[in-house]
Amino acid sequence: MSVAPPRHIAIIMDGNGRWARARGLPRHFGHRKGVEALRRTIEAAADLGIANLTLFGFSTENWRRPASEVQELLGLMRRYLSSHVAELCENGIRLRVIGERQGFSRDLAGLIERAEELTRNNRRLVLTVALNYGARRELTLAVTRLVEEAAATGKAPLIDEAAISARLFTHDLPDPDLVIRSSGEQRLSNFLLWQSAYAELVFVDTLWPDFGRADLEYALSEYGRRDRRYGAVVTGE
Ligand code: IPE
Ligand code: IPE
Ligand code: MG
Q1: Domains in the chain and their CATH numbers?
Q2: Residues 62, 91, 122, 190: which is the catalytic one?
Q3: What is the DSSP code (8-state) at residue 187?
């Protein structure tokens, strides 16, 4: 039985620190190399005809890292958004950022907005980057909004799955069909918990700075072998 190709792939980009450590380098070298892997992967995904790619770049828990590492990561986001928007446009890629951007400085929030605006008409691939993103926070915000909206109308909130989905950061994206995590770790680390309810999970040992087209193709071939049942019984059994 052949599975339809994934409409949405989400990737937990992990292993930058270990990549650097294996070379006796400080962790930030890994993060810098990680940006190259990100550019490679975006290009490969577009080339492979993937319509939606979501990348986990910075979690709500990553603020717990040493201040110098957090600064390095914020600096990389600034640099990427300042210098690679033209590249995204050349490749037909629309960029969107999910997560709580109030957590960022005004200049970084401005760069995010500018990149979204400049790429908004690109149609080849929708690239969503999760920054200051945590799935529990996202769900908490969605339910809070639902309750507040109802309170404003004086009615009891109508709470169902569609009402929650419509208030998530990903309200206009299909659920991910495939979630990939690099670096050998096998956990979701608070990424797209609601949306990944029926995603196929593929874990690869490659550390993120080494990730590229071959890993993506491997994950796609693994996905192609899966039997997606959604709780039902496969007909003919
Ligand atoms: C992924 O690499 C990048 C971010 C989480 C921001 P890590 O920095 O988590 O690398 P490891 O897991 O320590 O190797
Ligand atoms: C998950 O990686 C977050 C991102 C990839 C942005 P972490 O390295 O922060 O996750 P844990 O701490 O190993 O679970
Ligand atoms: Mg990690």
Answers
A1: 8-224 (3.40.1180.10)
A2: 62
A3: -
